[in-house]
Specification:
This protein is an alpha+beta fold. The protein has one domain: Alpha-Beta Complex (Nucleoside Triphosphate Pyrophosphohydrolase), CATH 3.90.79.10. Strands 1, 2, 5, 6, 7 and 8 form a six-stranded mixed beta sheet that branches. Strands 4-3-9 form a three-stranded antiparallel beta sheet. A hairpin with a 2-residue loop joins strand 10 and strand 11.
Length: 197
């Protein structure tokens, strides 16, 4: 069962290895210094067919408008940790009750091309929570089966032009949704770690 394998993985100690948008490109990544610390919540429902919670950001947002993403955002001065950041942002964006999240652990931080060092926080939540999207940040909430998200057969490498350069990135499709960029990259990284254990 995919959730059991994720639990097993995160129960083991590991040394974080930053990765990111540059993994699929030639040349060294930019240094992590100067990147803005951020965290996202990878919330997985605890049920027979575990589901991964995702959002579609509102189109008007200055950063990543209209993209599929995990709930999350930058580290605030008042946050005690990156886990606290992920829980706070998930509460603000989708009304996720922090006390309903069983935090399993954190994954490798992800460097984005937009200047963030994002730490994914993996948590298990009960199915059927009455979540509510904040219309100022989130257009829609949806779930993807965890087994589908972690299946390497659904991880497609693509490329496109960004700021005059060819960029390579992962995409994962489910129903009408296209997960790509950093969000897909974090899912692919989790899938590879689960498969390697």
């Amino acid at each position: 069962m995919p959730l059991d394998r994720v639990r097993s993985l995160l129960a083991r100690p590991f040394t974080p290895q930053p990765h990111g948008d540059w993994d699929l490109m030639q040349g060294p990544p930019p240094p992590a210094e100067g990147l803005m610390a951020a965290a996202v919540l990878m919330a997985i429902t605890d049920e027979a067919d575990p589901q991964l919670l995702l959002t579609r950001r509102t189109a008007h947002l200055r950063r990543h408008g209209g993209q599929v993403a995990f709930p999350g955002g930058r580290l605030d001065a008042g946050d005690a940790s990156l886990i606290a950041t992920a829980l706070r942002e998930a509460h603000e964006e989708v009304a996720m009750p922090p006390d309903q999240v069983e935090v399993l652990g954190m994954l490798d931080p992800y460097r984005t091309g937009t200047g963030f060092l994002v730490t994914p926080v993996v948590g298990v939540v009960p199915p059927g929570l009455a979540l509510q999207a904040d219309p100022g940040e989130v257009d829609a909430l949806f779930h993807v089966p965890l087994a589908h998200a972690l299946d390497p057969g659904n991880h497609v490498r693509q490329s496109g032009q960004w700021q005059g350069e060819t960029r390579h990135f992962w995409t994962i499709r489910h129903d009408s949704h296209v997960i790509w960029g950093a969000t897909a990259g974090m899912i692919v990284a989790l899938a590879r770690r689960v498969a390697a254990q």
